[in-house]
Amino acid sequence: MTVMRTILTACLGLLAMPMSTCDLAAQANVAVLPAAADTTLYEDAAGAFANGAGEGFFVGLIASGLKRRSLVRFDPAAAIPAGARIVSVELVVQVSRGFAQNLVPVALHRVTSSWAEGPSDATLFREGQGILAVAGDNTWLHRSFATSFWNAPGGDYDPVASGVGFTPPLGRVTFASTNAMTTDVQQWLDAPATNFGWLLRTDELVPQEARRFESRTTSVVGTSPALIVRWLAAGTATSFGVGCGAPVPSLAVAGSFQVGGTFTCVVQGNPFAVSILLYELSLQQPAPEVFPGCAFYLPVSAVSPGLQFLDGAGQANTSFAVPSSPVFAGLPLAFQAVVFDASQPFGVGFTNALLLVLL
């Protein structure tokens, strides 16, 4: 990424082209993916219990102090075209049972080994403990009972969480998009053979903080896990947020988002204000608030072509020429502008953010 940013900064020429209108070429596509597999890992020294085909899966410590972890996998390659750029992802699950009344954090960890969902069905009355595993199930010890083992009991996963959701004792939960979640799904799209899904776990410190979630095979309509994916095709762009200020400044882009093409970003705000356009290769998710209601979507490593003065119509244009080199094909570019204006409540306003993918 550092090398690409250096190339980008050196090669994208600033051309100062006037434009009268500047609309987005396209909005992001949205795919809602059902779970392809999910299951519970029941802590057990013998690795004897499973529930791959059950109506629910479990996460956390039960009253006895034994651990419950879950696995869930989605198949972005089945619904999103190859070469697409993942913009954001949200995991939506339904908590159907929980004893602890506080919000229990559940972390997502990228699984690093393959696993089989398995055919065992503990039914509603045995799900908390599971039933004896049969061939093809995965358990606390097995990726596939009883021939393939995890490298470590309880599953193989990246110890750094990709995201977190705060689960009530009952109700719908959304795991908000993070850079790591987006990166995970992008990898699964680009290299489906590496798609082993996520492992869900709590901090596993407090008994009776376990949660039951509806599984993909639940009989309760509309409560199965879903992954909401926003994605862009190469050569298109989309907007994030609405900006902040009074009036709210805006950022738009149009032109040719492809190798050898030229596109222009236009900042719109109060006449004669000063703006700075920033750009990077990625968005920051979740976007922190600089002021209340003012989200900044770019990482701190963002670069800028310099200060600009909005003209009498309240516009400042910055044009970029994309070099005719295949190294730029598929490159994402994120933009956001800051407008310095004494009439703003904090003396500064933020535009919406833009993300485009070069063709």
How would you characterize this protein structure?
The protein has 359 residues and is mainly beta. It has 2 domains: 2-26 and 234-357, S-adenosyl-L-methionine-dependent methyltransferases (Single Sheet); 29-231, no CATH class. 7% of the residues lie in helices and 39% in strands. The protein has 3 helices and 26 strands. The strands form 6 sheets. Strands 2, 3, 5, 6, 7, 8, 12, 13, 14, 15 and 16 form an 11-stranded antiparallel sheet that branches. A 5-stranded antiparallel sheet has the order 17-26-25-20-23, with no helix packed on it. The protein has a 4-stranded antiparallel sheet with strand order 1-24-19-18, covered by helices on one side.
How would you sum up this structure in a few lines?
By secondary structure, this protein is mostly beta strands. The chain is built from three helices and 26 strands.
Which secondary structure elements does this structure contain, and how are they paired or packed?
Layout: H1 2-11, E1 13-14, E2 29-34, E3 37-42, E4 49-50, E5 56-61, E6 67-73, E7 85-98, E8 104-110, H2 123-126, E9 131-132, E10 142-144, E11 148-149, E12 163-167, E13 171-175, H3 179-190, E14 198-201, E15 211-214, E16 226-232, E17 237-240, E18 250-255, E19 262-268, E20 274-280, E21 289-291, E22 294-295, E23 307-309, E24 315-321, E25 332-340, E26 348-357
Antiparallel strand pairs: 1-24, 2-16, 3-6, 4-9, 5-6, 5-15, 6-14, 7-13, 7-15, 7-16, 8-12, 8-14, 10-11, 17-26, 18-19, 19-24, 20-23, 20-25, 21-22, 25-26
